[in-house]
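Example 3.2
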Amino acid sequence: MTKPPSKRKKSTFSSSTDSTSPDNLAQEEDPATATITVTAVEISELIEQEIRDRLHLERQVEKAFYLAGKALTELRDRKLYRSTHKTFEEYCRERFGFERRYPYRLMESTVVVDNLMKMCPNRTHFQNDLDTSTPDFSETQVLPINEYQLRPLIPLEPEVQREAWQQAVEAAGGKVPSGRVVKDVVQRIIERTKVPNTYQIGEVCQILAKDNPELRGKGGCWAIVSAVNEFSCTVRVWDGEYTVGLQHLKSFNYLPQECEQMQSLSDRINRVYLSGLEETVKSLLQALGKLNRPYLTAVEEKLLTLLEFEYGREITP
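Structure, written as tokens:
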């Protein structure tokens, strides 16, 4: 009888140079049980010069929006954009990528910061970068680091702005408060004497300065409401846009047709103003911007038409 073929045994090879046992090999290949040796790196303390450099750079970050607002204000007031752009809004959009309202928010924010610094003018985060007159920098006044934190303060009176900011800093534990904290504080303050905002877009109002430095030169001007906020309105006057608190506005109660006439007049005046003008022409436009009636006299109409023609901005009826 023929024997069935026998099964071949598998050969097992071992290396004399491999001293790792199967159990140890399995342990080394298991990442869960692997041991990682980390070499400790000693972190040195900042030297005096590094501390000064850090403070200098931190202040640059804090002042970024403030400096931007100051620069934009000068660019607008001096019309340094006029060689390349017709309007300030167009210049900001194409040069910096800013939406229409953002540059105005930056400019309005600088006014609020200047007001807040009056609380403690000699001890602020916005001192000269290398000022060492205040060795304990923790005692410097807490100021905002972006315009969003200041938006709720813009419509308030200067003294109320300072009160609201101080309360917001206290609510934040002595640190820079968030925009939400500032808004909550402002909300509580305004609730004391809340006045409902009944203005409508396109409505014609008169600006009442009431010793508000932010409205210097705008007292008595008529304005077109372009945005209705909770406690303020964004209005357009003869030389630009402003955010004005309700206490600084008075409606002319014009009829809808009269409001449309004033809107057209506002556009015409603004187009002429955006050209490079002489002081006498600016004075004339400012006078037209303080009319207390919804129409121009025959002489005023002729003067404005002449200016439109002279500066190449004649409006086709």
